[in-house]
Amino acid sequence: MLSPGVSAGTPGAGFQPAGRGPRLLSGGGRRATAISTLSTLVVLAALVAIFLAAPGSSQVRHTFFDPHDMWQSFIGNPKKGYYSVGAAIWLNIRMFLAAEVLILLLALLIALVRQSTSAVLFPLRVLAMVYVDFFRGVPLLLVVYAIGFGIPALRLSFVSTQSYAVYGVVALTLSYSAYVSEVYRAGLNSVHQSQVAAARSLGLTQSTALRYVILPQAIRNIIPPLLNDFISLQKDTALVGVLGAIEANQAAQIYGSTVFNYSSLTVAAILFLILTIPLARFTDRLIDRDRRRRLAGAVR
Amino acid sequence: MIGSGLSTPDAAAPRPAEPAIALEEVDKSFGANQVLSRINLSVAAHEVICLIGASGSGKSTLLRCVNLLERIDAGRIVLLGQDVTGPAVDANMVRRHVGIVFQSYNLFPHMTVLRNVTLAPMKALAMPRAQAEEAAAELLVRFGLADKRSEYPDRLSGGQQQRVAIVRALAMQPQVMLLDEVTSALDPELVAEVLDVIRELAQGGMTMLIATHEMGFARDVASRVCFLEEGRIIEEAPPAELFTNPRDDRTRRFLRRIVDAGRM
Questions:
Q1: Interchain pair A194, B119: CB under 8 A
Q2: What backbone phi and psi angles, to 5 degrees, belong to B120?
């Protein structure tokens, strides 16, 4: 009964006209736009049809997509024992922003140490390598547990009395810096050695050459992978919920286990999407602007 | 250590007896590959020396050694009266007095022409921005690049990029310029505009050490020409002598190949 709709909307066949070139809807004029719009609608309609026709559809719709529960979980109600998912997402945003800045700095430091050649820094290079190996190898969830429960257990005066969100940021920073340092390293390697020679031959010191010549080019080259890691980081702030911090995912689960309706999870998912999609589009725009500016030689 | 000779411009003007650049018994190898062996070369102030020879004969490495981009294995390099090959020498100080221009321009692609030129004076000499920009603008006008100051390097022709690279080196007011096959990457019709710039520098009295494949240009502009083969200076003579009456068989063979290729 469903097969005709599915086959008509097979993405491989339906999307090809629009799939040429680097842009999602490139060239081809109105006709191409019309065809791609139509094929998109057909695919969507097919998916919705499958969903609605599935035997458990009404249960799933009630459990995960109930408008009333979605709204209730979004605004929250402390009297009934659940938090607002909409308010909790702010904690994710704050953790993300704090971790992002720290990661950018720590990862750069690690990358520079690993790229250094001086004999004096050899012990640091080994340390940096061990660090990266360790934190790339250990699951983030375990790092979150270790920091979030381990450090308070030490009962140190200042260090052990922070909030779970702070420990979460520390854990995210430790883990992500290992990955991002490798991205930085790739970026540094992508700048041709002749640029270093040109900068040094003008009498610029190593650090000046790095700051004004090498790093700007390296960072330009790694913006897409960097933003990719940050999109991932935004989602992984949800892991801090396991410590008991009331972030969006934790708030949604509390709603679910209080009211026995999981539409709250859908709300959390939508909120995460609202955060990550603009970041992705922003990345595209940055890349595009940079490319255009260099090609057009625009006046500053 | 680099003493007063290189740090103050007044004292840096070499005395007549003192060569601007002197290489003494310089050896350089990359692994098992001996690139320079027992090079002796002396460049007086205001002299233009052209280095000719096949690719891989050691011309570029010689220039990079003078600029301390490569460390020599043995021998000595004396710049403006100061031994620059000692372990305690501040390479950055040396390089501020020695401009080098590369075959592939090596402009900074993320900066405008103006910023390419002003970066080193501002960051290495701590020159105020206004002063650096004024000096840069003057140089850009002098070399016909005034209207390109706000362009990014990608938008310039090869000849323009190479002229910007020369201006960038000149902005540091070097006492010596090293030019490493600066026209080899250019389309033939763009070679002349770059060579004209170098001629102008030579007429202005700039001390230059030039690695080049342009024999006609070397004949015009050089005070002396050195022919290198396998890391050795085979023959060194004024251009009129070296090009018309080479003494060494190896020089003769090289020049014959150049003539046969229609390059002279």
A1: no
A2: -65, -45
* Residue A120 DSSP one-character state: G
A187, two tokens: 């970026």
Domains of chain B (ranges, CATH numbers): 4-260 (3.40.50.300)
* C-alpha span between A83 and B263 (Å, rounded): 82
pTM of this structure: 0.79
Task: Give me the residue spans of the domains in chain A.
Answer: 3-53, 80-249+272-296
Nearest to B112 among A203, A204, A300 (CB): A300
Q: Is the ipTM of this complex over 0.90?
A: no
Buried residues in B180-216 as b, exposed as e (16+ CB within 10 A)? bbbbeebeeebbebbbebbeebbeeebbbbbbbbbbe
The tokens for A79 are: 């009297």
> B69 and A216: CB-CB below 8 Å?
no
| Local confidence pLDDT in tens for the 300 residues of chain A | 444 444 444 444 444 444 444 556 555 678 888 999 999 999 999 999 999 999 999 999 999 999 999 999 999 998 998 999 999 999 999 999 999 999 999 999 999 999 888 888 999 999 999 999 999 999 999 999 999 999 999 988 888 888 999 999 999 999 999 999 999 999 999 999 999 999 999 999 999 999 999 999 999 889 888 988 998 999 999 999 999 899 999 999 999 999 999 999 999 999 999 998 988 888 888 778 777 766 665 443
Query: Which of B2, B119, B167 has the most A C-beta neighbours within 10 Å, making it the best mutation to test the interface with A?
Result: B119
Which residues fall within 8 angstroms of residue A126, CB to CB, at 6 or more apart?
A: none
- Torsions phi, psi of B58, nearest 5? 110, 5
Q: What is the CATH number of domain A80-249+272-296?
A: 1.10.3720.10
B119·A202 Cβ contact <8 A? yes
Contact in structure between B26 and B72 (CB atoms under 8 Å): yes
